[in-house]
Amino acid sequence: MPEPPSSRKPARILVVDDQMSMAEMIADGLADRGYDATPMASSRDAAALLEREPLDLLVTDLRMPRIDGLGLLAVSRKADPSRPVIVMTAYSAVDTAIESIRQGAYHYMTKPFKVEELVLFVERALGESKLRREAVALRRALRSRFGLENLVGESAAMREVGDLVERVADASVPVLITGETGTGKGLVARAIHAQGARAEAPFVSVNCASLPENLLESELFGHVKGAFTGATANRVGLLEEADGGTLFLDEIGEMAPALQAKLLHVLESGTVRAVGSNKERAVDARILAATHRDLRERVTKGEFREDLLYRLDVVSIALPPLRHRRDDLPALIEHFLASAKAKHPRSPVESIAPEALERMLDHRWPGNVRELEHVMERAVLLGRSREIGVADLPATVVEGSAAPNGTAFSGDVVPLREVQRRYVAWAFERFGGRKVLTAEKLGIDFKTLSRWLDSGGESNEGR
């Protein structure tokens, strides 16, 4: 029987039996095998110990005066739901032992039994408990690294994004994430996965614009040996790798029509067929898709399947560009400063000079949050003093801040349509990114506002 490694702190086990000789015998047997076992005859004292001590496992008799085994089981589960409990019973009380399993006991043992038999179940129980604790810790770490906390911003638009992420996280429906390049679509996809029930399962990501059609098909669906030149072995596709978890399709608008049809089949049937194979396999992968394109416009042009759009757009989350959530800039700057400092601890940079901060607040950030992150990392990496000054900022930020908030004009005359577009964008910022309120104040309908916000050169910035 395997013993706990000597380098590992021995598991603490409480053994409770109203016959102290029995409790001591079992505890001695466990101690001989490397465990820290404590015998106890008073179930009342045992209950108090379970409530205040971080014990790893409880072994308890069922029939005891004052507090019986089921009572101790309840106390233990309330104090630490992950702590396994093994109950001991006489043959005549097997029905009660079975009831203990229903109430959460790990296993029951009928007296008399050998210590070796108990050790077997102790080892199994502790192993499974360790896995559960590690899974909880992993999920907590995932949420810390990729959860909602990483969606920095308290503007109305970002609060709405955070609310949507929370509401859809536990569902299995597809989500379409839209927004300009650099707004954080991948971060939102990660947050949906990390917040949901699939957090411990794989999160698989692929950029549909980064691979040619034939390679993307093989990447997504897999292939069998001999399916094409160079296919020297079977390969599992990303859809199967994401089984039980999430598949994130970034830049879905760039996917070729033939692959769109195959993806639609997966969404409708829940099955995937590898390239060159005649067999289909069931997959349970949640699909999250992102694009900076207007997919409805691409549908009109025949570049994107309308039926696939309906399948993907069960829930949509629109990320606002950074210029429409300027209230979030100070928090984002502070966040990326801390992040860059953590990556480059030898940098002397500690803060930002007021003049540099003013230039950053005035910049229009066509590259959105990604541009801001890169600017902060560059300034921290190259900075030679405690403060980031104007000279530490790239020319694009310094020179681009001459027209604060994108509302000022240069000496050139601009078309009236551009004036109107800028005014609508300014009003949208003024009302904290709330489209309904902005449309109401401007006296236009919601669709007209959306069209103006996305019109002109602004709709293509940062793409």
TrEMBL record:
Residue span(s) of domain Sigma-54 factor interaction: 151-381
Domain Response regulatory, first and last residues per copy: 12-126
InterPro entries documented for this protein: AAA+_ATPase (IPR003593), AAA_lid_NorR (IPR058031), CheY-like_superfamily (IPR011006), HTH_Fis (IPR002197), P-loop_NTPase (IPR027417), Sig_transdc_resp-reg_receiver (IPR001789), Sigma_54_int (IPR002078), Sigma_54_int_dom_ATP-bd_1 (IPR025662)
SUPFAM superfamilies: CheY-like (SSF52172), P-loop containing nucleoside triphosphate hydrolases (SSF52540)
Species per Swiss-Prot/TrEMBL record: Pendulispora brunnea
Protein name listed in UniProt: Sigma-54 dependent transcriptional regulator
UniProt keyword annotations, A-Z: ATP-binding, DNA-binding, Nucleotide-binding, Phosphoprotein, Transcription, Transcription regulation
One Pfam short name: AAA_lid_14
Keyword match DNA-binding: yes
4-aspartylphosphate, modified sites: 61
